[in-house]
Amino acid sequence: MKIQTARWFMAGMLFIIAGCATAPPTTPAPEAPTAPATSTSEPTPIATVTAERKAAGGDAQQTMNAIRPEFTRATTAFALDLIQRVARQDADKNVFISPANIAIALAMTANGARSETLQAMLATIGNEGATLDAMNTDYAALQALLERDDPSVVLTIANSLWARAGVPFHTDFLQRTRRFYDAEISELDFAQPSAPDVINGWVSDKTNGKINGIVSDIPQETMLILISAIYFNGAWQTPFNAELTQDLPFNLLDGTQKQTPTMFRSGMFEYLKGDGFQAVRLPYAGDALRMVVFLPDEGRTLAEFRTMLTVENWEAWSAQFAPKQGQLLLPRFKAQYDVTLNEALQAMGMSAAFDPRRADFSGMRPVPPVLVISSVRHLAYVDVNEAGTEAAAATSVQMGVTSARPIEDMFTMHVDRPFFFVIEDSDTGNLIFIGSIIEP
Fold first, then answer.
1. Which of 23, 95, 190, 242 could link 17 by a cystine bridge, Cβ 3.0 to 4.6 Å?
2. pLDDT tens string 277-336
């Protein structure tokens, strides 16, 4: 039965590749071997692939209840830790990532990990002490929640696995990535010059053309490429009036100023005056998602603010927002960011997955050869303007062998210096995108 299932997966790969004009011809794949006993347990049932979840009615409240609070807390810790490491790495750049997208790509990969490698990956992406089944259930529920039917915003997640032609993978590994992550599974001749174009075309299509070139080349030792892509387009619940936008100075890190188109809005906001910063929430239409902008006080740097990004502080801040009359001046901004996450992920505890002497991905395919993660690359894009926000991101994991207050109490938040922001789910608080802007 397992061998028949593996053939069915491979047929799907060949069909998908055959449908691409640039896809090279491929040879029939050998039968995938039976997975080892440690990887054949039946996953915890949930509304499985995305199509089935939507067909079942997309009960957002029921799906939200399926997400464990400890999962949300752990993924928040992952997001805050990662953004601090990445921002220190690129201190002089605008930094923008999707921690949810990165975690989903790593979670798919973890389904092929075993022993120390699996435990390290679970701990790093925020699931220490959880079983593989619990992690898969959490991420399936999160994807279902984020992709809930909402005519006000567009948020789509797409996952895929690209296997080197002729290389077999365990049926159980393929089944889990399809079942919990709705992953498209394709076989591709990596030796063909057009192979990167096939994968990049898929990513570009899933991100509305915003993410291009996630794969630049495919080394000879690469056996598998796992991709996760996310796309978001949302209008503000209350748009900014474009006629009020004007060029105002923005203070750069080097002490100089840059004239920047700055949007203006006044009214009632959910606002927080914290210790050394102020913050405001900007909901998108439909109220399911929102941007939160954090502005360090004058005399405080963005780097100083980021040192305060702990789960404990984040939870305390989230509970302290309150309605307040005020006015917001926010620069229009657009940013693109490209980062390799190998170093950051190893520092966060995932070094075993990158080490040929320690890595155990025997849940993916037979050993030898030993599989290791050779590269984790992340590309992200964001465009914030008077109408709303468009954002996209993609992550590739390459596996190689080897209420009103008095007017006098109004706040003014003029974002005229480097700032921090997130796009989060309003119900659960899961962080979808996160970044810092030093030059709009």
1. 23
2. 999 999 999 999 999 999 999 999 999 999 999 999 999 999 999 999 999 999 999 999
Q: What is the pLDDT of residues 174-214, one digit of tens each?
A: 999 999 999 999 999 999 999 999 999 999 999 999 999 99
The CATH number given to 237-331+404-437 is 2.30.39.10
Helices (H), 209-357: 302-306, 311-320, 342-345
Residues of the chain with CATH 3.30.497.10: 2-34+62-234+335-400
| pLDDT of 100 above 50 | yes
Q: Which of 407, 419, 416, 430 is nearest to 277 (CA)?
A: 419
What is the full DSSP assignment across 128-160? TT--HHHHHHHHHHHHHHHT---TTEEEEEEEE
* CA R_g for the chain: 22
Q: What whole-number distance in Å separates Cα of residue 18 and Cα of residue 279?
A: 51
Task: List strand residue ranges (DSSP E) for 284-387, in order.
Answer: 289-296, 322-331, 333-340, 372-384
**Could you report the per-residue pLDDT of 231-256, keeping only the tens digit for each?**
999 999 999 999 999 999 999 999 99
Q: In sequence order, what are the beta bridge partners of 382?
A: 335, 391
Residue with tokens 């998602």: 289
Supply φ then ψ for residue 293, to 5 degrees.
-105, 130
Q: In angstroms, rounded to a whole number, what is the distance separating the alpha carbons of residues 388 and 139?
A: 27
Domain 2-34+62-234+335-400 class, CATH top level = alpha beta
